[in-house]
Amino acid sequence: MPTLAGMRRRGYTPESIRLFAERIGISKAETWIPFSVFEEAVRDDLNPRAPRVMGVLRPLRLVIENYPEDQVEEFEAPFFPDDPPRMGSRKVPFSRVVYIESEDFCEVPPPKFFRLAPGREVRLRRAYIVKCVGVVKDESGQVVEVRCTYDPDSRGGDPKDGRKIKGTLHWVSAQHSVPAEVRLYDRLFAVDRPGTTEGVDFLDELNPNSLVAPEDSRVEPGLLGVEPGRFLQFERQGYFSVDPDSTASRPVFNRIVTLKDTWAKIMQKAR
């Protein structure tokens, strides 16, 4: 069961725990508090103090065919996009080959999929607009590489001709990014109220995906050597803490909470 030591190791802050306690108040009656209430308190605490960085958890290789092979650029990226002067910025390297999230590409996109697909343009955050012109597949038919071209006049992510680009993806340079261990923690139980269903052992209600550790995760080079205990927001991924298991050559990150309450949608689909 959760303990305060375990919660702190994952990255929950004392402030978020106290904020949660203040919000639920005190009652003499036995009540169930949705876990989402606690998660929202964690987000509210971390949002104003967790610097934004980029990490790709399940990388897909993206090659920009018309980008010079030996060229490397750097883009200025603020730690707090809504308030750049508050905590400064860092330089993010960009090269011909980058990694994007594998889920950000779909060969046959469903409706309202605004990310990358054949013939479609997306914005690489703070970099350029790219267009998918082909894919490379392995022997099993799985896409292992996306081939793109870029618009040189779209540096910074905005096209000069004013055309609308709906999708914006985070990325890391394949040449400069560093490998990282990322531990994606989720809820311990797969139901809202474990142990309350007659005839069902609460152990059978454990969530088999309460901890997932993707292979080959990559993060921007500035996170190499980051000290344990720091809080970060991986853009589009969630809030993370740096685990004490981190080493000088391989950082380890624990996901504290996602950016949105995705559990409600999962439970709604299951009903």
- Say how many strands there are: 18
Main beta sheet, described? 7 strands, mixed
Find the CATH topology of the largest domain.
Ribosomal Protein L25, Chain P
* Strand line-up in the sheet with most strands: 10-7-8-9-3-6-11
User: What gyration radius follows from the Cα positions, in whole Å?
Assistant: 21 Å
CATH level 1 name of the largest domain: Mainly Beta
Summary keywords:
single chain; alpha+beta; Ribosomal Protein L25, Chain P; globular
What does this structure look like?
The chain has 271 residues and is of the alpha+beta class. The protein has two domains: 4-23 and 32-46 and 181-216 and 230-270, Ribosomal Protein L25, Chain P, CATH 2.40.240.10; 53-173, Ribosomal Protein L25, Chain P, CATH 2.40.240. Helix content is 14%, strand content 29%. The protein has four helices and 18 strands. It has helices spanning 4-10, 14-24, 35-46, 263-270, and strands at residues 52-53, 55-56, 59-64, 73-78, 89-94, 97-101, 121-124, 129-137, 143-150, 168-169, 172-173, 178-179, 181-185, 211-212, 218-219, 231-234, 238-242, 252-257. The strands form four sheets. It has a seven-stranded mixed β-sheet with strand order 10-7-8-9-3-6-11, with no helix packed on it. A six-stranded mixed β-sheet has the order 1-16-17-18-13-14. A three-stranded antiparallel β-sheet has the order 2-15-12, with no helix packed on it. A hairpin with a 5-residue loop joins strand 8 (129-137) and strand 9 (143-150). The longest helix has 12 residues, at 35-46. The radius of gyration is 21 Å and the shape is globular.
